[in-house]
Amino acid sequence: MDYLIFLGICIVATASPGPAVFLSIKNGAKYGCGSALVGVVGNVVAMLTLASVSAAGLGAIILAFPSLHTAIKIIGGLYLIYLGIKAWCSKSVSHAKSPEGLSIFTPKKSKLFSESYFVGISNPKAIAFYTALFPQFINSDEPILFQFALLAGTFASCSFLFLMLYVLLASKLRRHLEKEKILAWFNRITGGVFVGFGVALVSSNEA
């Protein structure tokens, strides 16, 4: 029963719109499923990293020191603002076309991975999620390592599945983005969303 509750929380948390979701939507719409998949993997690796940090007890230390938690929050917020400004200022020009008429321009996959990883790893809510939620679903009378692997694997799997669903849906927009005016508006909307997330995170009064 406890696991089903945890699974429900994971589904709601990973399906809800947030920076990782909108980054996946942007990547899927602009670069297609293949390249966007790299970004999704970057986010999942970030989640597993945070889970490991939580298991090592470092997450509790971060939450115990408000100044450190605030610093992470500000860094994460500024990075989202940076991504938003970069998206807003992206040139809405046509790139080289594939035989099907779709753009074959894609950024380096390592860049997509690092962007998604940093968005995930700098999310203070994710740190709080792992630090505050995990202990509530771990039975000290049972093998800790197995329980930790199960919970972390469940959250990572949910994150991967929902982010890929958003990527697949967004990739359907790719043909329309070959039109310069539509691409310009897409860049502005996604850029505005990221700036909004960043400003909200930086100005948040949460500890």
UniProtKB/TrEMBL annotation:
It is found in: Cell membrane. Pfam families: LysE. Coiled coil: none annotated. Keywords: Cell membrane, Membrane, Transmembrane, Transmembrane helix. The chain crosses the membrane at residues 6-25, 37-65, 71-89, 117-138, 144-170, 182-202. It is a multi-pass membrane protein. Its main location: membrane. InterPro entries: LeuE-type. Belongs to the Rht family. PANTHER family: ARGININE EXPORTER PROTEIN ARGO, HOMOSERINE_HOMOSERINE LACTONE EFFLUX PROTEIN. This is LysE family translocator. It comes from Celerinatantimonas yamalensis.
